[in-house]
Every structure is written in structure tokens, then in C-alpha cells.
């Protein structure tokens, strides 16, 4: 499992991975998937975990990360 997590972080931190994620989440299919996922408790937890994993891989600073995770903790 640890190896898969590292591979995912490496991909998310690459320009190709970031572009793929942005393209998907801004597409109609991506928006609908996110809306459907957030509608369930399991989905809320999954989306929160994905965001918390993706942000550091994208180079988000610790101060910004703290703000974002604080907001996520309150709404999820």
C-alpha cells in the first residue's frame, strides 16, 4: 500500500497529473461525480482524504494547508 501511495503522490505532483485532475474536476462528468460523492457520508470522507493527500503533493504551503484542512474538518 505504501508504494501505491508514493506513486500516487508522485503522479499528483507532476504537471501531467495536475492537468489531468483539473481537466476532470472541471468537466461535467467530474462535477457530477463530486456532487454525488459529497452527498454521502462515505463520499465526504473520501473527498476530504483525497484533497488532504493531493494538496501537499501539489506543493501547497503549510499555512494554506492548515486553513484548507480546517475548513474541510468543519464541513466534512
What does this structure look like?
The chain is globular, with a radius of gyration of 13 Å. Helix 1 packs across helix 4 and helix 3 (28-38) packs across helix 4 (41-57). The chain has one domain (2-75). It is 86% helix and 0% strand. With 76 residues, it is an all-alpha fold.
Topology:
Elements: H1 2-13, H2 15-25, H3 28-38, H4 41-57, H5 62-75
Helix pairs in contact: 1-4, 3-4, 4-5
Short structural description:
By secondary structure, this protein is an all-alpha fold. Helices cover 86% and strands 0% of the residues. It has one domain (2-75).
Low-confidence stretches: none
Overall structural domain count: 1
Quickly count the helices.
5
Shape: globular
* Helix and strand pattern: HHHHH
**Spatial separation of the terminal alpha carbons:** 25 Å
Mean pLDDT: 81
Q: Keywords, please?
A:
76 residues
Amino acid at each position: 500500500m505504501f508504494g501505491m501511495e508514493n506513486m500516487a503522490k508522485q503522479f499528483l505532483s507532476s504537471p501531467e497529473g495536475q492537468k489531468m485532475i483539473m481537466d476532470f474536476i472541471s468537466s461535467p462528468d467530474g462535477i457530477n461525480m463530486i456532487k454525488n460523492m459529497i452527498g454521502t457520508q462515505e463520499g465526504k470522507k473520501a473527498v476530504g482524504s483525497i484533497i488532504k493527500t493531493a494538496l501537499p503533493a501539489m506543493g501547497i504551503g503549510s499555512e494554506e494547508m492548515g486553513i484548507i484542512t480546517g475548513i474541510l474538518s468543519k464541513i466534512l
